[in-house]
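Interim report, section 4.2 (structural modelling).
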Amino acid sequence: MTVASSVKQCLASLKGAEASLSSLTSRTQDDESRRTLHEAMMEVNEIVTDLKKRIGELEREEPQYKGF
Amino acid sequence: MPEWLQVVLRSLLFLTGLFATTKLLGKRQLSQLSFFEYVTGITIGSIGGELVTGVEKNIMHGLLGLAIFAGIPFLVGFISLKNKAFRDFMEGRGVVFIKNGKIMEENLKKERYTIDELLELLRKKDVFQVSDVEFAVLEAAGDLSILLKKENQPLTPKDLNLQVASIKEPQTVIMDGKILDEPLSTINQSRNWLNTELDKLGVTIENVFLGQVDSYGQLTVDLFDDKIEVPPPTEMPLLLATMKKCQADLELFALGTEKEEAKDMYSKNSEKLQKVIDKVEHILKG
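Predicted structure of the assembly:
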């Protein structure tokens, strides 16, 4: 497996985690837990953004790994 | 009117009458009896019993007696609500039996309790050694409330400096195979959502005896057919595992890359994710 594809895999997992956190946030009844989960979701989202940028760079450097 | 019919009619009358009276006097009459409630409770009962079977007696006299015995406690209860001194007089006060770990012999004597009775009350609260108790008080209703010494108190998460996820009361959304709409709307969910969750568990609604949703929106069910194993909810542990895996991946990427800029980015994000994990772990572990 190439570096680009493992980074992409990691990105996909993180996106999944973000979605789970988001759905958990909407279902949670307790206010404090909801806030914590929401903050976690926002932070995971920032990491996702960073990784996306990095994948863009990787694809530019090694165009043969473009796409999936 | 034959006598038996009178007995039947009186029974019905007093049954409804006594039911209404007890309703009026409130739940206190049932759970904890103060001196006053004890006395009136007994008397109301015997007036009722006497009149139901004693057909030769005048029913109006009985009703009058009942009204007085129900009315005065109602009045007393009302004044007690407003006035502390009156309340103490009518309902009695707690008496301290153990203070600073020492038995108050005078108070025991005053309430005419023997040491055996005190030990018995303590044992009912699972205390077998008097020296374990810091403070104990005999309540007006006759039961003993105790405060154990700190070292004998059960361990709590606070003692261990443990962070635990706070919870709200779970809602029962399915009973006997039927969906209850009111609790479902309390947690802002629809029948649609519930059906999806049931599909995820692979069970049909008809087979569900009891279904509850916890404060994190996880559905747990008990089935009519006890041979079928229902999987426990996996979403939260799975989420935690995914985040941990990603965190490890990011660290690996940081080690693997030679570009300084990317290295920084990876290690910064792996630390960030670790912080996120630390923050939500206590919730996700449930």
